[in-house]
Amino acid sequence: MSNQSSPKLIIHGGAGSSLKGKGGLDAVRQSLHEIVAQVYQLLLDGKSANEAVILGCQLLENNPRFNAGTGSVLQSDGQIRMSASLMDGKKQRFSGIINVSRVKNPIDLAKTLQDEEDRVLSDYGSAELLRELNLPIYDPLTDLRLHEWIEERKDNFSRKMAGVVAENENARRGTIGVVALDMEGRISAATSTGGKGLERIGRVSDSAMPAGNYANSFAGVSCTGIGEDIIDECLAAKVVIRTTDGLSLVEAMEKSMAEAHDNKRDLGAIALSYDGKIVWGKTSEVLLAAYHDGNGINDSLEWNDNSLVATI
pTM score, two decimals? Predict the structure, then answer.
């Protein structure tokens, strides 16, 4: 089905309400562009879309600037619980991990589950899997996230969410995601999050559901924003299915984002299609996305026009 001439890649580090301050903007841009460059090189070396999105997630999880892996936000009881998923578009196979603790890269568990009969595990199952894999125990807590939680606790958790981008407390929707199209035309999507912060114990985000992360041979989508809004729209699966049913990826994203906007959702999404089209959309003010279109690296950080969708 593939007719693209080069691999394509898009990543995101969350969505938000603003990116005030040039220092914050420049720091986020540098982080995202460096990760895009490293992952795109992997694709140029002939590696699979699966390998690319896993590496991209690992790099984003390892960067404390983003709310996934190291730098994840704390839940209402002061604990970190992370979720992640991987979708192999060629196999149309989903695997995910929900509310896992004490691991450096939750995406690694989702990768392991790709080959299992039971492919989505919650907190207890994820802890058992960690023991089976003998992965080192890791504390993803950062001083900044702990300070955020302490300050919120003083205010009796009056804010709905912890800050998501370290430089900017106004950016509050935290997830990371990667969608890749490799040289053989295969698409994969991966998404990881520390949650929205301060949430009820046991709350499950969209990141380990097809609502927030979905791919097949036609398209792949990773979402960010308010998890409950993404679940209510079933956004990632909706966009991919509409593409499968004959809409172009741009049309599918435009229709889905218009519906989300009408429903007053707060979210964003990145997407790739089998023919190499790169598309992103948002109802939030800012989407922290960066991409490689085969010619070079660019991003959506200063994209603030009135349209809900952009395409390359």
Answer: 0.94
Is domain 8-311 annotated with CATH 3.40.50.2300?
Answer: no
Identify whether 175 is a catalytic site residue: yes
Determine the average pLDDT of the residues in 208-224.
98
The active-site residue, picked from 112, 175, 191, 283, is 175
- The crossing angle, in degrees rounded to 10, of helices 22-44 and 49-62 is 150
- pLDDT of the residue at 24: 82
Q: What percent of the chain has pLDDT over 70?
A: 90
Asked if residue 172 has pLDDT above 50, the reply is no
